[in-house]
From TrEMBL:
SUPFAM superfamilies noted in UniProt: alpha/beta-Hydrolases (SSF53474), PRTase-like (SSF53271)
Name of the protein described by the UniProt record: Phosphoribosyltransferase family protein
GO function term, MF aspect, one: glycosyltransferase activity
CDD domains with a match to the protein in the record: PRTases_typeI (cd06223)
UniProt domain Phosphoribosyltransferase: residue ranges: 32-169
Species this chain originates from: Kitasatospora saccharophila
Keyword Glycosyltransferase: yes
Amino acid sequence: MDFTAAHFTDRTDAGRRLAETLLAAAPELRGAVVVALPRGGVPVAAPVAAALGAELDVCVVRKVGVPGQSEVAMGAVGEDGARVVNQQVVDAAGVTPEAFAAVEARERAELARRAAAYRRGRPPVPLAGRTVLVVDDGVATGSSALAACRIVRARGAARVVLAVPVAPPDWAGRLGDAADAYLAVRTPEGFRAVGESYRDFRQTTDAEVLAALELPREPGATGYELPLAAGPAELAVPADPLGVVLFAHGSGSGRGSPRNRAVAERLRRAGLATVLFDLLTPGEAAEPWKVFDPGLLGGRLAGATAAVRRHHALAGLPYGWFGASTGAAAALRAAAEPVAGPAAVVARGGRPDLARARLPLVTTPVLLIVGGADAEVVELNRRARAELRGESALQVVPGAGHLFEEPGALAAVADLAAHWFVRWFPAREGSGSPER
């Protein structure tokens, strides 16, 4: 596939673009219930829900594929007994009723497993009398989207809107009155497959779905304190963590920062251990040259990482760095070292220009998050991304300033960070084929 023509970096990027389109075209959707089709629709729906200030839930649907050609949908099944048959495909493929029933039975068994895994005993969000926004990562045949729309209508939705990043030009006509309104970021002529619009269309894992839904992998987290050079570090470790994230704070914030604590809490709900600590002592923080010295800060971050990884609760876990402001430069500077080895880096409102000389040496996957109203920093991050040699993405939070104090802005940052770390930490759960 020629990825140079891809329109979206990945599903999270597509979700941000879809959210911007929705806010511009249908601002009345603020506060609607967002219902995602797992797996692939969930990382798209999460930033949409954050931007709209909406509740996020799932509608579990399984594609019923043609025997021997499972990627070709001849129908779909969903929760509450929903069933869609694409008779045109069935007839063209010569599928007998018995063969269809056999595939349907297998898909219903997997559907029940996934519904139980994603809901964790929680009931679906009530939909009666409400506007419901159904979101997937794209529409091809439309069987899965049709099943989802039928399910939410059966649950009492007063209005159903189907929204996707990409669909065929005639998709609304195909689906008819399944939804009350349709919205896609793009409907390219010559549409062949949803994945052609994505640079990264890898299969979404159950862990990523749980992270997006903000469901804890296990209740509670164990706390520890670890002495470091600039003061104690606070370790919070959920049961069976996927990895550990160390926070590198910039000027004006520290381990007690409410912003950093809010992001750390979100990461723990995604099954990630977190470490909050200070890179500088209070006396050092009063010296401007130290605050803006990425070499010094990066060295402190690397040293703290080595100490944290020796802790019995974190031994052997993959790790990543979340850097804010000048702490972002510290994380990038440290990631340029050949012995660093973080699985992923997230930089929030960062000053990557402070580490510019070292950026071409960074091969770690890096996510740069900036506020849309912080024009100067947006440009600095764009230039920095061009210097990076590994996988990278730039996410702009619309309307947010440097400190992300606007309503919903910090939640968007936390969601983006959780998805990035879960994506790049080695997976512990299997994955299946994406559904349409």
